[in-house]
Amino acid sequence: MILRFSDHAANERTYLAWVRTAITVMAFGFLLERFDIFLAYASHAMGSTMPKLHVLASEWLGLALLAFGALLVLLATLSFHRNRAAIDREGNELYRRGGMERLLSGLLIAMAVFLVIYVAQQVVALS
User: Fold this and answer.
1) How far is CA 32 from CA 14, 19, 36, 63, 83, in A?
2) Which positions ≥6 away from 4 have C-beta within 8 Å?
3) Which of 46, 50, 71, 80 could form a disulfide with 15, with the two C-beta atoms 3.0–4.6 Å apart?
4) What percent of the chain has pLDDT over 90?
5) CA dist 95 → 43, 83, 87, 92 (Å)
6) Contact 2/34 with Cβ under 8 angstroms?
7) Closest by alpha carbon to 86, among 2, 17, 11?
8) For the residues of 82-114, what is the DSSP string, one character each?
9) Which residues are CB-neighbours of 87 under 8 A, at least 6 positions away?
10) What are the tens digits of pLDDT across the range 47-59?
11) Is this model's pTM higher than 0.85 or not?
């Protein structure tokens, strides 16, 4: 029998949830990086030209999301191993976490605000 199995299983479920989140962020980054194909098609259908700045913005933000997803996997792996070692140690210790979660949440909120502004500008420009 594995000692503290339920704690280890919860740690693994949390790790897998972070990995799924990272895969989703990377997929969204890839989609956004390819968003210029949609913009080119839409601007061609409207009979206008697409500004190069908007293409570069979607490419850079898409690459940033891809890198952010990779960073999520790295941080989740480090957290998983740190928690695994803490579960195996004898004794009690205080739970002092939250820095990584705050940083990642802040970055996601900043990217979401940028995306809202970016897409709103595109909608206004195409209409």
Assistant:
1) 27, 20, 8, 9, 34
2) 87, 88
3) 80
4) 20
5) 53, 10, 11, 9
6) no
7) 11
8) HHHHHHHSSS-------HHHHHHHHHHHHHHHH
9) 4, 7, 8, 11
10) 666 555 566 777 7
11) no
